[in-house]
Amino acid sequence: MILALVTVVFVVLGLLSLRGTRWAYWTFVVLGILFFPASVGFHFHPRPCDCAINLQLILFALTKYGHIWRFTFFFLMTAAQVRDKRVSRQFLIAWGAVMVMGIYVELAEGITGSGGCRLRDLAPDLAGAILGAVILMIWRFFRNRRPAT
User: Fold this and answer.
1) What is the dihedral of CA 49, 54, 57, 62, to 10 degrees?
2) C-alpha distances in Å from residue 66, one per residue of 21, 22, 94, 124
3) pLDDT recorded at residue 145
4) 57, 114 in Cβ contact below 8 A?
5) 3-55 confidence digits (pLDDT tens)
6) What is the full DSSP assignment across 98-121?
7) Residue 70 DSSP one-character state
8) pTM, whole model, 2 decimals?
């Protein structure tokens, strides 16, 4: 029941963020940061981070589709918040936010003991950012092709 409510809150805030609503974006980010500590009742059980990385581990990590779609969504939310007309700045800020949040998620999993802190899990986060950038470019392309009325 609680998990369903949390999911609904995040989805609503995320959709509002896609429309450029700043308060919804920052509320989403703050609640996202608090999610891991709150999920363990703020009782931390630190574990070491697995920093092993090679091509096979990265390819395995890329099967974490949950990471990919969540970080695609986060990329698009962040890009919607950037009011700069320069596409390069919009993409760079959104990419940076995805990577910072991805690093935070891995560290939070390690500190709380609620998941596995793995360096390789940044690969699906980056894949999500790339997918978000592709979606944004396609959306901009079609938006700019509409005839002015």
Assistant:
1) 100
2) 24, 25, 19, 9
3) 78
4) no
5) 788 889 999 999 999 998 999 999 999 999 999 898 888 888 899 999 989 99
6) HHHHHHHHHHHHHHHSSS--BGGG
7) H
8) 0.89
